[in-house]
Design goal:
The chain is about 0% helix and about 35% strand. It is built from two helices and 27 strands. Strands 1, 2, 3, 8, 11, 14, 15, 16, 21, 24 and 27 form an eleven-stranded mixed beta sheet that branches. Strands 4-7-12-9-10 form a five-stranded antiparallel beta sheet, with no helix packed on it. Strands 17-20-25-22-23 form a five-stranded antiparallel beta sheet, with no helix packed on it. Strand 22 and strand 23 form a beta hairpin. The longest helix has 4 residues. The radius of gyration is 26 Å and the shape is elongated.
């Protein structure tokens, strides 16, 4: 999550990207029996072809029929978020509806502060980091003379966990003003970490590390001061359980033929048409039969050969028409496996259709570009997992257009299973801790004392300091 994918941009969108006219008798894209009765788009006119989505039958482009050798679905991995903590602040809800708990029950050492009371806070956020907008309202930090800042976080069982540290330099622009060491499970994972040097001033930095729990019952995160001017700071912590999904359990919960009727695939499995909201389809998008508008010659791959019949229809979103969403009823908690069938039937150029896939509001595929990643008219299966809690009764799969994409998302089939999960045996590096412990001879964290040296400047007069000019930074 520390890397932000770059949205592909078409470099040469042909003038025939969108249909410019209709045959003398335009085919109906959406059979009347396929339109949801309570939600869905307005039917297209019957006298002209759609004007904002798919190309006319000319020119005909023949795809390659050779299937690549890398289309096997990648091993699905469960990443179940178990903890979210807002460091140095109260419980909050982010822009995606996730709750971040206060950290005062798990933090030992350090002080909290609200930077906006003393300096201008204006973080450069992207689509992926927008959820952290309220996170940077507070932070927990320690001075260089303080003892270490230690988080001891209880976890629910042995296994492998992914630890994400949300960091930002709110106060100091110069590189080198704040450097600190990070230990996870007593192993040094980041040495002399300098936020400004890595990403810049007031830019989010997400550092990810793997932690193994084998009997401890906790994950320990330690921030250790160095000899730099300022001590460690942290804005949020997110922890996910990481396990390998062995396979689905064979008992299908849903199979949906997106944009089409109920059919049987090459293996004899029944795929239900998505014409009714009760069958999974929720909102957004219209249906179309690609072969009625363009030449279709799909490549055959070992993983999609039995699903060719599903490629006869699609459900897609016109540009600027919002998102496409499917909602499935689930009746018990646990880990679920979602399989999705995609193909680019229309456009040969990378960047023409770029979109995102979210499950339960969490991004699982970002800036998905089928032509760039798989090829033209080559079907591909994408898999992801999601953990359903004891109080949840729905599983939501949402397809969102990426910013600047000329075309909206298109999907051909969705399968939903309960997942069979086993613990991932992979362990993180176990190098011994080598960071300084910096233990003072007497505590210096008195709640009534200033904690960022308010009586003495800690930086040159031309740069902002993290300290107020009056001792008002006592822990909140």
């Amino acid at each position: 999550p520390s890397a932000t994918p770059t949205t592909a941009t078409p470099t040469d969108v042909p003038s025939t990207l969108q249909p410019t006219g209709a045959p003398s008798t335009a085919p109906s894209e959406t059979p009347t029996t396929m339109i949801p009765t309570t939600v869905g788009p307005t039917p297209l006119p019957t006298t002209e072809a759609p004007t904002t989505m798919q190309p006319t039958p000319q020119p005909t482009v023949e795809p390659t029929t050779a299937a690549p050798t890398t289309l096997a679905p990648t091993e699905a991995v469960v990443r179940v978020v178990t903890h979210r903590f807002n460091c140095g602040g109260p419980e909050i809800t982010d822009s995606e509806g996730h709750t971040w708990a206060a950290d005062n029950q798990i933090a030992s050492g350090g002080n909290s502060i609200q930077p906006s009371l003393y300096t201008t806070v204006n973080y450069a956020l992207t689509e992926e980091t927008q959820q952290f907008a309220t996170i940077f309202s507070t932070e927990r930090y320690i001075q260089t003379v303080d003892s270490d800042l230690v988080y001891t976080i209880p976890v629910f069982g042995n296994g492998v966990y992914e630890v994400e540290l949300v960091l930002g330099e709110t106060w100091h622009r110069p590189i080198g003003t704040r450097r600190f060491n990070v230990l996870v499970q007593n192993a040094l994972v980041f040495e002399s970490l300098d936020i400004v040097a890595e990403v810049g001033f007031q830019v989010p930095l997400i550092k990810t590390v793997t932690a193994i729990v084998n009997g401890q019952g906790t994950i320990t995160i330690t921030l250790v001061p160095t000899t730099s001017q300022e001590g460690p700071t942290i804005s949020a912590i997110r922890i996910s359980r990481v396990d390998d999904v062995v396979e689905d359990d064979g008992a299908v919960i849903a199979r949906v033929n997106c944009g089409g009727p109920t059919i049987a695939d090459g293996n004899g499995n029944t795929w239900t048409g998505d014409s009714l909201a009760s069958l999974g389809y929720s909102a957004g998008g219209v249906t179309i039969e690609p072969s009625r508008w363009t030449t279709v010659n799909y490549a055959t791959t070992p993983y999609t050969a039995a699903l060719t019949v599903l490629l006869e229809t699609e459900r897609y979103v016109r540009p600027g028409s919002g998102n496409l969403e499917y909602v499935f009823a689930v009746n018990q908690p646990g880990v679920y496996l979602v399989k999705m069938l995609f193909v680019e039937a229309w456009h040969t150029q990378a960047g023409t259709r770029v979109f995102n896939v979210d499950i339960q509001g969490e991004p699982v595929f970002t800036n998905l570009d089928l032509v760039a990643q798989t090829g033209f008219q080559i079907p591909v299966l994408k898999e992801s997992t999601v953990s359903i809690g004891a109080t949840e009764t729905e599983l939501r799969v949402q397809f969102r257009p990426s910013d600047g994409s000329p075309e909206g998302p298109a999907v051909y089939g969705i399968e939903l299973f309960r997942a069979v999960v086993e613990a991932n045996p992979t362990a993180p590096p176990t190098n011994p801790p080598s960071a300084p412990t910096n233990t003072p001879t007497a505590p210096t964290e008195s709640p009534t004392a200033p904690t960022e040296s308010p009586t003495a400047p800690t930086e040159s007069p031309t740069a902002p300091t993290e300290a107020p000019t009056a001792p008002t930074e006592s822990p909140t």
